[in-house]
């Protein structure tokens, strides 16, 4: 069973790693803790960001690929929380991160509070192509399930393009380019077969945790391809059929 001291100590270690921009060994290498405790650590980390003035902006989904679930030995997705401090308008400062990676996403904009996961699709007012910057605090980007959950599912930054009215998203082609070179191609079908399934899972997990998805919340449905290293002084563009594109530069 976790204690407040355990949760604080684990959150402290992750916070120091981010502040020092230095990767650390997996927390589970020295402290045994379970998934519920990992989510407590995650919430502690977000509470500290909110105490510093950031606001909750939404949620991000992880392990939305069946292959990734098998690799990690799990049968359900994981999730993390997004704050407005993670939102990127145009530039990502790679110097503020440890070993960033970027992946293409499908994003949802919540228009009405989601009270029933089964009705999640009717509660969104927009869909967009997006991106997420991942930055694990762990050496070599290697972790166990509790480690990555405690680390807020590696969330570092995110952005999205123009919002479009809700539409079918089951099999849309997605391309990610860095400096004009295609680095990943995929389909929205890689996200649990249909990103709307990920949206329903996000609503289910949020409700169970007492963090309902309210108007204005953004849901990142999960990666459509594998993440790739995000270099300094680069231009990234993610394009999705029917949803246009989103661009970001790095420094």
Tell me what you see in this structure:
The protein is α+β, with helices and mostly antiparallel strands and 251 residues long. It is 24% helix and 30% strand. The chain contains 5 helices and 12 strands. The strands form 2 sheets. Strands 1, 2, 4, 5, 6, 9 and 10 form a 7-stranded mixed β-sheet that branches. A hairpin with a 2-residue loop joins strand 7 and strand 8. Helix 1 (4-20) crosses helix 2. The termini are far apart.
Low-confidence stretches: none
Shape, per Cα inertia axes: globular
Distance between the termini: 43 Å
**What is the SS-derived class?**
alpha+beta
Q: Sheet with the most strands?
A: 7 strands, mixed
Order of helices and strands: HHEHEEEEHEEEHEEEE
Percent strand: 25-35%
Specify the helix fraction band: 10-25%
Total strand segments? 12
Report mean pLDDT, rounded to a whole number.
94
Secondary structure tally, helices = 5
CA radius of gyration = 17 Å
Quick gist of this model?
This protein has about 250 residues and is α+β, with helices and mostly antiparallel strands.
Topology:
Layout lengths: L3 H17 L14 H17 L4 E7 L3 H7 L5 E6 L7 E2 L8 E10 L13 E11 L10 H6 L4 E6 L12 E6 L2 E7 L7 H14 L9 E6 L4 E2 L5 E6 L3 E7 L1
Parallel strand pairs: 1-9, 3-12
Antiparallel strand pairs: 1-2, 4-5, 4-9, 4-10, 5-6, 7-8, 7-11, 11-12
Helix pairs in contact: 1-2
Task: List descriptors.
seven-stranded mixed beta sheet, 12 strands, 30% strand
